[in-house]
Specification:
Distance between the termini: 13 Å
Largest sheet: 11 strands, mixed
Oligomer: single chain
Shape: globular
Bound molecules: alpha-D-galactopyranose, zinc ion
Strand content: 15-25%
Number of strands: 27
Number of helices: 17
Helix content: 25-40%
Structural class: alpha/beta
Radius of gyration: 26 Å
Length: 663
């Protein structure tokens, strides 16, 4: 398959991290040490200036760029590359004091005092003016600097503001969407509890009675962030054509990152797995899923912009990384499509909130500590993977994830006791991941054309046109797997009639039965009894084949799993919350029937794989998520990481990982 290099002039897997020399200007010898240690750690790319507004503009209108000139010139001289940040992730105190409107207003109407970061009001014209001035100066001065690889807009853009300016923009957003207040009333069922509005500004976005409005407020916030990101990008674009991105935060519950993705020239994400709490495989599955999401967003490699080289300060336990863990975490990202693994942070600050956050260089300022050595060891191997930079992935099956679906479930008040979509989604992803299928994550309004199988875990909100879109996908030979709570509401959180979805699923959900922790249900599938906890839906079958039936209680004998043949394809309905073992077996069967094979078979249960496709070869990444050494069969290959030929058998140490090239 054809390469898609993110940086054609820098065809490497990126390695480096957030670098804040602006905090060390009084101790130039430390900056000298940085450049010495960069070589020793094999780090080559740095995100510079993320929180440097007060170093760039210490007083309003007074700018100091000499320190940044010096850092960028030194980077260029040493062959280091930089993602230059716009500094809007944290505003200067002088701004907060002089212009209260830049400070956000909380949900209870209080103007925030000066504190912390990630807190500019995105609606304020003043904020936009100040942003424009500093961004334009940076872009004009450094837009074509040889060290600058791309732009890092702000930092972890997030949050909400209830100031009058933001509320006014929200009402405009509603007006654009619904045109008239009558149309809004009709669509969101505002007659309930006498909520019929006579003008948009009567609407309270915090009012839980109108779930559709609460979801619209979340959508509005995503639009606010997108708009601000697009604004910063447009300022950069006046002077610099280099790629622009912003760092996302995985499945952050409040931000619809699909709305931000089109503004980014490449996707960047921050990743902080906690390997030591709970099952390591579960953590492995979760982060594989996040990487799959970031690859799928643009169907091309992305950059893991942040990860912890050592122990983050905010963790419940300061658990040192075990041997092999850092390498495995980084290779996990690369195997799933990352073309860069970067850290927060290069050097530990001496003061402030994050002074004990793990960093490549610690307070000892030496190459002797454990973290530095783990990073340097990983970095020393990394150039062996340069041949992989830009290599795509081949993905046949994708899971559907919609942020507004998760909000509708989360913000609505249901008797259903099982509506937590995050863990449910992850369990279904993991059931597929366990069998080593190559997976993607797509939104329901996204492009289904790359995929042959779609899995929609708890897709409660089916937006207008999506039923038909899914139906066309299936009729053309696709396989669709939907689960409990499929299609209860439309995009305005209005309930469908159960039969509205029947043309697709062949069944109708008449009721749901939720189970308190002391009660379970079961189903009979392929002659085996399968355990069900928490929730089971009662189906009326119209035209589906029944694959499993409930075994207990008064609805024993009614369908629990069905398959509906439709056109060239089929739709499976999983009507209950089934145990993991069943899910794994079920998905394996369904994908095999759809003609999709795992990327590699016969691996031990603790060993997982990922594949990047080269032009004439494949790169097979292997990971041991267990604490025991594992030996298993692999195709004849060359072990790129360890420089040796592998003849049909591979051994991985506990937490081991490697990369094989297969011709
Ligand atoms: C986030 C931020 C960083 C830093 C790290 C700490 O990802 O972007 O600035 O605070 O968390 O883990
Ligand atoms: Zn505001």
């Amino acid at each position: 398959m054809k390469k898609q290099l993110l940086f054609p002039d820098y065809p490497h897997i990126l390695h480096g991290g957030d670098y804040n020399p602006d905090q060390w200007l009084d101790t130039p010898e430390i900056i000298d040490d940085d450049f010495r240690l960069m070589e020793l750690s094999h780090c080559g790319v740095f995100s510079v200036g993320i929180f440097s507004w007060t170093q760039l503009e210490p007083e309003e209108g007074k700018f100091t760029f000499d320190w940044l000139d010096d850092i960028l010139d030194r980077c260029a001289k040493h062959g280091k590359k930089v993602f230059l940040a716009t500094p809007t992730g944290a505003r200067p105190p002088w701004m907060a004091k002089k212009y209260p409107e830049c400070r956000r207003v909380t949900a209870d109407g209080r103007r925030d005092e000066y504190q912390m970061r990630h807190n500019l009001c995105f609606s304020s014209e003043l904020v936009r003016q100040k942003t424009e001035i500093i961004d334009a100066k940076l872009a004009r001065r450094y837009g074509n600097h040889p060290a600058v690889l791309g732009w890092h807009i702000s930092n972890e853009l997030s949050g909400e503001c209830f100031c009058p300016l933001c509320l006014a923009r929200f009402y405009k957003f509603l007006e654009k969407k619904y045109h008239t207040v009558d149309e809004l009333n009709r669509r969101i069922w505002s007659g309930f509890w006498s909520h019929r509005y006579t003008s948009f500004d009567e609407i309270n976005p915090r009012d839980p009675a109108m779930e559709a409005i609460v979801v619209d407020w979340k959508r509005f916030n995503a639009e606010q962030i997108r708009d601000y990101l697009a604004f910063e990008k447009s300022v950069i674009r006046r002077y610099s054509g280099k790629p622009v991105t912003t760092n996302m935060m995985g499945l952050h519950t409040e931000i619809d990152y699909f709305r931000l993705a089109p503004e980014c020239d490449f996707i960047a994400d921050d990743c902080y797995p906690m390997w030591y709490l709970g099952e390591e495989k579960k953590v492995g599955a979760r982060f594989s899923m996040l990487h799959d999401l970031h690859y799928s967003m643009q169907q091309k490699p992305f950059v893991m912009m942040e990860s912890a080289p050592g122990v983050p300060n905010f963790r419940p336990y300061a658990h040192l990384r075990r041997p092999g863990e850092l390498q495995r975490e980084m290779l996990l990202a690369i195997g799933h499509g990352a073309d860069g693994t970067m850290y927060f942070q290069w050097r530990k600050s001496r003061g402030g909130f994050e002074k004990f956050h793990g960093a490549v260089v610690g307070h000892d300022n030496s190459e002797d500590n454990l973290t530095f050595q783990q990073v340097a060891d990983y970095g020393a191997h990394l150039s062996k993977l340069d041949c992989i930079a830009g290599s795509p992935r081949k993905i046949d099956a994708a899971l559907i994830w919609d942020w507004d679906n998760s909000w509708a479930l989360d913000k609505g008040d249901y008797t259903h006791n099982f509506k937590e979509v995050h863990p449910f989604f992850l369990r279904h992803y993991k059931a597929l991941w366990e069998s080593n299928f190559s997976l993607g994550v797509v939104e329901s309004t996204g492009d289904f054309s790359p995929y042959r199988v779609l899995v929609a875990p708890m897709l409660f909100m089916v937006k207008s046109g999506i039923r038909e879109k899914l139906e066309a996908f299936v009729r053309n030979g696709g396989t669709l797997i939907v689960t409990q709570m499929f299609g209860y509401v439309n995009e305005d959180s209005l309930c469908y009639r159960p039969a509205d979805l029947t043309p697709l699923t062949g069944v109708e959900v008449l009721d749901y039965d939720c189970m308190e922790p002391t009660r379970t249900q079961s189903a009979l599938f392929n002659g085996k009894v399968v355990k069900i906890t928490e929730a089971a839906e009662l189906l009326r079958n119209h035209s589906a084949e029944v694959l499993a039936t409930y075994q207990e209680d008064f609805y024993a004998g009614t369908p629990a799993v069905t398959r509906h043949a439709l056109g060239q394809g089929s739709v499976y309905y999983l009507a209950a919350n089934f145990e993991d073992e069943f899910l794994q077996e079920f998905y394996f069967d369904a994908l095999t029937k759809a003609g999709i094979a795992p990327q590699l078979e016969n691996l031990p249960s603790n060993v997982k794989c990922a594949v990047r496709e080269g032009e004439n070869e494949r790169y097979l990444f292997l990971y041991n998520f267990g604490e025991n050494e594992e030996t298993f069969p692999v195709p004849a290959a060359y072990d790129l990481w360890n420089d040796r030929t592998v003849d049909g058998k591979l051994t991985l140490a506990p937490r081991g990982s490697t990369v094989l090239r297969i011709k």
